[in-house]
Design brief:
The chain is α/β, with parallel strands linked by helices and 588 residues long. It is 55% helix and 12% strand. The longest helix is centred in the N-terminal third of the chain and has 27 residues.
């Protein structure tokens, strides 16, 4: 059920005129044009999946053609070698889904395992269609080799019927894609595109999301290929090839990636016009298409549709977030009792890069309600230690416990499950999303978001609400974050971390770049987090005056070693600290 009236209106304006056009178009178009457009409609379904992956998730993929080709060959092989009938149609469709599922699982695991890079994932997507094409070439008479499969029996429907069936399917698919991408769950894709690192440190398993999404879009692309093969009666290795996959990317870029409608219209219009140009200008039409692609990328990087159809862009922007969001106090009752032991404990933590020891034998602990500051000159290893605590794979030696849990080699999203939250020195928020959307995504681990609706309520723990109200961000929930000031972004990131309901919070220079009044405000908030709400804070800070005002204890690092630990007065007034900051202390 679609609860948001704005989304309902958007979908109605999208679905009704489009369905009317699909029903009426065959009455006025000639047979050749209808035939070309049916093929283009199948290609538009494929382009839509590329837009979801590239335009909304930031994953540039050349491999969607492989899914399309797999679905096409599922139909071609079944109809050629087994026969045609209702049972065989269902079998071919089932095989198309299974093929997409297997290809998606394998490709997704190779592309998105922990530690892989976006470039590596794109290279895997580039290799996929090349490998699949070679498999088809090597299939001999079974796959038809380079000639493909032709002449098999297929559904005997009139062109007008095909057009209306495929057109209606495309309209429904586009509408549901729009609904999904505008939902609370769908906004996670935009968050991944904006900042994968922050998503991981909010407890979101990025790899799993991407693999699931690749499988889902792969199944859609495969079914589109199945439909294309059933309509055309011809399949060829080129349908699964790298060249075709690149063409789809061009369609998406020219139409306008990240707009849903742009790639759909781009695929239909470009494929339709290409069919005519290839007949009239057989040797140069691809040159014209390439020139157009380059010009659009340089002059209109968002694509043609956003530049031409300004009215659509305004409607699109108007439905990006609810008109009003109501803040609600979340139920933060802890299951099975709150952990009462050491909130964080480090034993012999070490980190090295080759022969360079960055951290050596770091051992200390902190309890709930403590604010422990890590100080030391630049290069002391403070930020490196933060990385080791929040990402198990970063540590070279030693043991780290968070609320009694040994993090071992756990990635950031699993460390969050132990009760850890991390704020970076440079505020990491989602620039294309609103304040409310950023905070809602931060609640993903605690409250499973809907993938079909958007909530107008935002549940936050009391300490996160305190940050919003103290910084007046509660009055800017519908503001896009890229318009916020530096101080507001710092406060928003802190509120996002607190929305996780952590028990241990790592803070890397949270006052960097802030004015004196903003620093004082952040200081009061941090003290409240420990004294009123019992959180354990581990703070990296250079300003000794700021540290003196808010800390429970201080740990001093120098050249990768823990050289002193004690009360605020013991540490700040010590000769050792004065010597370290004067730069005259030798190697510890």
């Amino acid at each position: 059920m679609i609860k948001d009236p704005a989304i309902r209106r958007q979908l109605m304006w999208l679905i009704l005129p489009a369905l009317l056009l699909v029903l009426v178009a065959p009455l006025v178009l000639d047979t050749y044009t209808i035939n070309i457009l049916i093929r283009a409609l199948f290609f538009a379904m494929l382009a839509l999946t590329v837009d979801v992956l590239w335009g909304y998730t930031g994953y540039l993929t050349f491999g969607q053609s492989a899914f399309f080709g797999a679905g096409a060959y599922a139909a071609g092989l079944v109809f050629t070698h087994l026969g045609f009938g209702p049972g065989y149609v269902l079998l071919a469709a089932f095989l198309a889904v299974v093929a997409a599922l297997l290809i998606g699982l394998i490709t997704g695991w190779l592309s998105f395992y922990h530690g892989s890079t976006p470039l590596y994932a794109s290279v895997i997507s580039l290799v996929l269609p090349i490998v699949l094409t070679q498999v088809l070439f090597s299939g001999g008479t079974f796959t038809g080799s380079s000639s493909g499969l032709t002449g098999y029996e297929a559904p005997d429907l009139e062109l007008e019927t095909w057009f209306r069936l495929v057109g209606s399917a495309l309209v429904v698919l586009t509408a549901f894609t729009c609904l999904f991408l505008r939902s609370d769950g769908g906004r996670i894709l935009s968050a991944i595109r904006d900042n994968e690192t922050r998503c991981s440190y909010l407890g979101i398993d990025i790899s799993r999301y991407k693999i699931y999404l690749l499988i889902a879009t792969g199944i859609i692309a495969s079914l589109a290929g199945f439909g294309y093969a059933s309509f055309s009666g011809v399949v060829a290795p080129e349908l699964a090839g790298f060249v075709f996959g690149t063409e789809v990317i061009i369609w998406v870029a020219l139409g306008g990636r990240g707009t849903i409608m742009g790639p759909v219209l781009g695929a239909v219009l470009i494929d339709w016009s290409s069919a005519y140009l290839s007949g009239n200008l057989p040797y140069v039409w691809k040159l014209f298409l390439g020139i157009a692609f380059v010009l659009v990328i340089v002059l209109l990087p968002k694509g043609l549709l956003p530049a031409i159809l300004k009215w659509f862009r305004k409607i699109n922007d108007a439905t990006q977030q609810p008109k009003t969001v109501r803040l609600v106090l979340a139920d933060t009752t802890q299951p099975a009792g709150l952990y009462t032991g050491l909130a964080i404990e480090l034993k012999g933590v070490a980190k090295s890069f080759g022969s360079l020891n960055v951290l050596s034998d770091i051992t200390f602990s902190a309890r709930a309600g403590e604010l422990v500051s890590l100080i030391g000159p630049n290069g002391a290893g403070k930020t490196t230690l933060m990385r080791c605590i929040s990402d198990g794979a970063e540590r070279g030696g030693g043991t780290i416990y968070i609320q009694g849990h040994d993090i071992k080699l756990a990635p950031p999203h699993q460390c969050v499950q132990f009760g850890l939250g991390r704020k970076f020195q440079t505020a990491t928020v989602f620039d294309s999303l609103t304040v409310a959307e950023c905070l809602r995504i931060a609640r993903t681990r605690i409250e499973t978001p809907s993938f079909s609706t958007r909530s107008t309520e935002l549940h936050l723990p009391s300490y996160a609400l305190e940050v919003l109200r103290a910084t007046e961000l509660d009055q800017k929930l519908d503001v896009v974050t890229n318009t916020l000031s530096h101080g507001e972004k710092q406060a928003l990131e802190l509120a996002m971390v607190l929305a996780l309901e952590p028990r241990v919070v790592l803070l890397d220079e949270p006052t960097a770049g802030l004015s004196q009044s903003e620093r004082s405000l952040i200081g009061r908030i941090l003290v409240d987090l420990t004294s009123r709400f019992g959180l354990c804070l581990l703070l990296v800070e250079h300003d000794l005056d700021f540290v003196r005002e808010i800390s429970s204890r201080i740990v001093v690092l120098h050249q990768g070693r823990l050289v002193m630990e004690g009360t605020v007065r013991e540490v700040v007034d010590s000769d050792l600290v004065k010597t370290i900051y004067s730069g005259s202390l030798g190697h510890a």
